[in-house]
What does this fold into?
Amino acid sequence: MQRRTIILAAAIALFVGATASAQQKADPKGGISADMLKEIRKGYEGTAADKAIKNALNSTAISVLAANSENIAMIDTHFSDRVKTKGITDQKSSGRCWLFSGLNVLRAKMIDKYDLGAFTFSQNYVFFYDQLEKANLFLQGVIDTRDKSFDDREVDWLFANPIGDGGQFTGVANLIMKYGVVPSDVMPETLCANSTGQMRTQIATKLREDGLKLREAKAKDCQALKTEMLKEIYRMLVICLGEPPVEFEYTMRNSKDEVISTKTYTPLSFYKEYVGEDLNNGYVMLMNDPCREYYKVYEIAYDRHVYDGCNWVYLNLPVDKIKEIAIASIKDNTAMYFSCDVGKFSDRQKGTLDLRNFDYGSLFGTTFPMDKKQRVMTHASGSSHAMTLIAVDIKDGKPVKWMVENSWGAASGYKGNMIMTDEWFNEYMFRLVVENKYVPAELKGMLSQKPILLPAWDPMFLPEE
It folds into this structure.
């Protein structure tokens, strides 16, 4: 015991001495002085291990060298509870994960109810109206703020974000309840739908030009001008995505290729016949944001897709409460919209999200000790991607892993899915959208609170892509 005390005292003395030495060499004005740089250079000792790692990184990616060889085996792929669904979708080079996830939740129900094959809705159809509505959201936002100076934070945010293809579940709900849905072969994907970057750039440029014109126009002329501007945006969208059908004839077939019905539909009548849910009022949005008080309701300004729709409103809950609700939904064969920080500790080849996938600390000889709250506060983590939560594996009454249906194609991950450990779920899951019936009454009652309004530029609420 005495020897350990002596060693500890010596270590503390060495650390204090080194700190004092560094303080003496530091530039009091905050820059890096010559003496300070000399001290800093001691951080790299040039040991054999350091040189080996440096040499390896000269031609090898950090993630490859940091891959944990002790965790190379594939996760057990058995799940105690799993939602019935068929087929994997692919958003390609677009930021439409929110749309794919929301539509995948609905199609899983439809497939099960009507015994369909790998049926899919047209993402392109809903996306067309998403882009048109976002254009209107921007232009009307410019009209609403035209009396504010151009360097006002809200005005600056609008012109920095005139349009995008990211989003979240409120967009799914508002758009479908307003415009309906169509099967994928009624309005198929186009190159611009699969790779949205160039289209987005051109439309964003046009919207910024139009926004400047609206700020300079007379107030009485703004609405008529906006309509003319939207006509031009509509034409650009039709050229890129095709024109959405107003009416169509469709034959629905089951998994045995038997005809269920042949009818002429509008997009809204098709939705009402085959899905029919009130998406605006039938779902609750939950969040695990440790930076903010739990059991409170929050609203995000401009976090919507439709001007006359709803901002995203959510109830902030501890992660264990969210898990209880998610398990209840999965056990009842109901998939959920789910979003997370998918890039963290992700092995895309195996399709696993596991904190043990990579050991960056050992590679760099350091530690990364921030917790979830600290990562969010410092912009080190946030929700980046939406998927569809479809499975949980429960052992001894507790979840040990989860599975989500992804929208990166059938060849990605584990058969198009991602499997996450429960530990990863704790650290990098952020949002879940569930049907009202799975939320306990005491939590549902909290939604009557007046939401606390948060700004559109809050980093926690960037659109999922």
Remarks:
- Residues 1-8 have pLDDT under 50 and may be disordered.
- The first helix runs from residue 2 to 25.
- DSSP finds 17 helices and 14 strands in the chain.
